[in-house]
């Protein structure tokens, strides 16, 4: 990999997501050689992916070059590499660009969409975990409306304009809200010769309330907001199969829709060599102790979505969200320095800063540890927090200007089919462009 020898211990980080970047920043000025490996050369701000899918933002404004985050630090090296395997016995990592030795290894590979083994849904449904996937979804939505104009078959036309979003967590709620706003504000103007009022946006939730990780008040209010926007909220229904046109469910309800978005679960991104049963939790996260060490491996650590630290307060690990990943990255940064200096490490304590979700313009729900609020103020808080955590000054400015413009103009001008996503090639393309 052409990385110079150093007298400092080498810390290899796999993954430049929220956790990996927070950790690398902590180590950037310390006495350690840091090698960050990622299969993308950019950090992906996943919370705003749904805005890319719905034409509210350009993909560039939620991505940030990893190299730029740590520019100017002499002991920092980035390599664009897909990690294939970890050999813990020889402390080496196999990648598509060669092998590398580590003194300390940090796995921060995040999570991927979990289709729970349903091959049909994986092949015919859409995931929204990466920027290419969001662009695919954006193209498919727009192509379906173009197609709807061309058919005389009312049944087919309806299916082209219908959406099924599976999963009533923040991703599903935010996407459903954004689609409802497009239906109301943009489609009638863009497609005056199409009866877009017939478009149905269905949000399907397996449990008895949406946003189950938030307070009951937040769930109720979000559901009310969605209904006001015209979204059909289905609860206690599970989508069981999808053939690309029809989604069957655990009840008699069948949805006829050419677009199904699967937002019903994620699972850890595993690595060969770290996949022994005893290392993994039930949902395939790497079991770690309070210092982020993978069980039984002193020099291998895991943070973020891929790690499961079981505590009294979080018996199934911390939520798979940005804050735990960032806080774990920072804590591990301090601990690695302590380890290198032969000082005892400090256990990780998660500070829950709350959670939030937006449904649409002036509509959001926020649960803070001490306060809960919904509506316009919550929406401003949601926007401020997302701008604050977005990496890169340019990105913040671009996103802010876009939001102001979209707010004033009721518009989303990035509704562009830049990279066509034809249905007939979908299975093949889905495989190629999954990442
Ligand atoms: C649509 C969506 C909306 C979300 N909204 C919110 C929200 O509003 N608030 C919130 O707190 N959280 C939200 N999340 C969750 C949040 O994004 C994740 O919890 C967070 O990204 C986890 O950080 P991480 O560092 O563990 O992994 P990630 O940020 O996913 O980063 C993992 C990195 O590892 C790299 N990688 C993976 N495998 C390999 C490999 N084999 N070789 C090389 N590189 C590899 C990936 O390219 C990626 O850059 C959302 C997630 C999604 C998908």
TrEMBL record:
UniProt organism field: Flagellimonas halotolerans
Similarity remark: Belongs to the NADH dehydrogenase family.
The UniProt record lists the keyword Transit peptide: yes
Annotated PANTHER family: EXTERNAL NADH-UBIQUINONE OXIDOREDUCTASE 1, MITOCHONDRIAL-RELATED (PTHR43706:SF47), NADH DEHYDROGENASE (PTHR43706)
SUPFAM superfamilies assigned: FAD/NAD(P)-binding domain
Residue ranges occupied by any FAD/NAD(P)-binding domain in the UniProt entry: 10-329
Transmembrane segments: 371-391
Catalytic activity, EC: 1.6.5.9
Catalysis performed (reactions): a quinone + NADH + H(+) = a quinol + NAD(+)
Pfam families: NDH2_C, Pyr_redox_2
Gene3D superfamilies in alphabetical order: 3.50.50.100
Segments forming domain External alternative NADH-ubiquinone oxidoreductase-like C-terminal: 353-408
Keyword Transmembrane part of the UniProt annotation: yes
Name this polypeptide is given: NADH:ubiquinone reductase (non-electrogenic)
Classification via InterPro entries: FAD/NAD-bd_sf, FAD/NAD-binding_dom, NDH-2, NDH2-like_C
Keyword terms: FAD, Flavoprotein, Membrane, NAD, Oxidoreductase, Transit peptide, Transmembrane, Transmembrane helix
Superkingdom of the organism of origin: Bacteria
GO terms for MF: oxidoreductase activity
């Amino acid at each position: 990999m052409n990385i110079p020898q150093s007298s400092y211990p080498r810390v290899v980080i796999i993954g430049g997501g929220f956790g990996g970047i927070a950790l690398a920043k902590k180590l950037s000025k310390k006495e350690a050689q840091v090698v960050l490996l990622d299969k993308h050369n950019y950090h992906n701000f996943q919370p705003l992916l749904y805005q890319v899918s719905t034409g509210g933002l350009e993909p560039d404004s939620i991505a940030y070059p990893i190299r730029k985050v740590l520019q100017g630090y002499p002991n920092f090296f980035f390599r664009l590499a897909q990690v294939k395997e970890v050999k813990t016995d020889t402390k080496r990592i196999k990648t598509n660009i060669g092998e590398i030795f580590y003194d300390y290894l940090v796995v921060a590979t995040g999570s991927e969409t979990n289709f729970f083994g349903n091959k049909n849904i994986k092949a015919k449904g859409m995931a929204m975990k990466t920027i290419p996937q969001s662009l695919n979804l954006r193209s498919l939505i727009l192509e379906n409306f173009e197609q709807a104009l061309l058919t005389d078959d009312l049944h087919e036309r309806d299916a082209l304009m219908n959406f099924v979003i599976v999963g009533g967590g923040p991703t599903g709620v935010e996407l459903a809200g954004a689609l409802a706003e497009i239906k109301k504000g943009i489609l009638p103007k863009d497609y005056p010769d199409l009866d877009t009022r017939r478009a149905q946006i269905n949000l399907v939730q397996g449990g008895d309330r949406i946003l189950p990780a938030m307070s009951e008040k937040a769930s109720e209010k979000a559901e009310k907001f969605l209904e006001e926007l015209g979204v059909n909220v289905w609860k206690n229904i599970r989508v069981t199969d999808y053939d690309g046109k029809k989604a069957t469910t655990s009840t008699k309800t069948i949805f006829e829709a050419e677009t199904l978005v699967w937002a019903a679960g994620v699972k850890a991104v595993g690595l060969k060599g770290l996949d022994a049963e005893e290392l993994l939790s039930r949902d395939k996260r790497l079991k770690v102790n309070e210092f982020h060490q993978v069980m039984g491996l002193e020099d291998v650590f895991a943070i973020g979505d891929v790690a499961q630290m079981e505590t009294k307060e979080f018996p199934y690990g911390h939520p798979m969200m940005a804050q735990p990943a960032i806080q774990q990255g920072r804590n591990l940064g301090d601990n690695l320095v302590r380890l290198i200096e032969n000082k005892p490490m400090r256990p990780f304590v998660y500070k829950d800063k709350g959670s939030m979700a937006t449904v649409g313009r002036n509509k959001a729900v926020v649960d803070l540890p001490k306060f809960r609020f919904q509506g316009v103020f919550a929406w401003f808080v949601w926007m401020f927090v997302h701008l604050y955590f977005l990496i890169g000054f340019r990105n913040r400015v671009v996103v802010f200007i876009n939001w102001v413009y979209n707010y004033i103009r009721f518009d989303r001008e990035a509704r562009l089919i830049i990279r066509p996503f034809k249905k007939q090639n979908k299975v093949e393309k889905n495989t190629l462009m999954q990442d």
